[in-house]
Amino acid sequence: MDYTQKIKEYFDKEKQVIDSVSKEDLSEIMNVLECARKERHTIFIMGNGGSAATASHFVCDFNKGIADGKEEGFVPYKFLCLNDNTPSLMAISNDISYDDAFVFQLKNFLNDGDVVIGISGSGNSPNVIKAIEYANSNGATTIGFSGYSGGKLKRIVKHSVHVPIDDMQITEDVHMIFDHCMMKILWACAK
């Protein structure tokens, strides 16, 4: 079977969505992240499913990728992914609640001035929302990456980049593009 036309349709849809994303919002978030790096704040990131994979990828790209090849004295990023420790996630989810999987960890580690990033395609993941609400109430700067209508996440974070499409795969694709776009630019510009 020839899937060429279906592939073209998918790619065309993706290009259309990328063109509709606010570049100004993404630039604003890059400035928030750079400020956190320079002030040595921790940046916590989290998501579920595909968004969890994206959160993990952010940690690799920002902690290793941006620091790679920099001169001695360069202040590196301090990204921590709240969905990467499987035993902790399972213990919290089993013993307390899956909705507390991220907020419980923030209660142990969050400091005033830290940054908390929530990634949720729907914008309504209860465990992400609960962690963002906690971060907002405890001196953190919050960032949200969402799709669909943006859900509650888009409304409650201090900084948001929204992917305006009702399609989870394209939303997740574009969230990954955010990571690579920001990482590549910040690597080139960071001193």
Shape: globular
Coarse structural class? alpha/beta
Fraction of residues in helices? Answer: 55-70%
The H-and-E topology, N to C, reads as HHEHEHHEHEHEH
Overall mean pLDDT score? 97
The main pleated sheet reads as:
5 strands, parallel
How many strands in all? 5
End-to-end CA span = 51 Å
- Percentage of residues in DSSP E strands: 5-15%
> Strands of the largest sheet, in order across it?
2-1-3-4-5
Number of helices: 8
How would you describe this protein?
This protein has about 190 residues and is an alpha/beta fold. The protein contains eight helices and five strands; from the N terminus they run H-H-E-H-E-H-H-E-H-E-H-E-H. The protein has helices at about 5-20, 25-40, 50-65, 85-95, 105-110, 125-135, 150-155, 170-190, and strands at about 45, 80, 115-120, 140-145, 160. Strands 2-1-3-4-5 form a five-stranded parallel β-sheet, sandwiched between helices. The termini are far apart.
Question: Which features characterize this protein?
Answer:
191 residues, alpha/beta, 8 helices, 5 strands, globular
Itemize the secondary structure elements and their pairings.
Elements lengths: L3 H17 L2 H16 L4 E4 L3 H16 L13 E3 L4 H10 L7 H7 L5 E6 L5 H12 L3 E6 L4 H6 L2 E4 L5 H22 L2
Parallel strand pairs: 1-2, 1-3, 3-4, 4-5
Helix pairs in contact: 3-8, 5-6
Write a concise synopsis of the structure shown.
Helix content is 55%, strand content 12%. It is α/β, with parallel strands linked by helices.
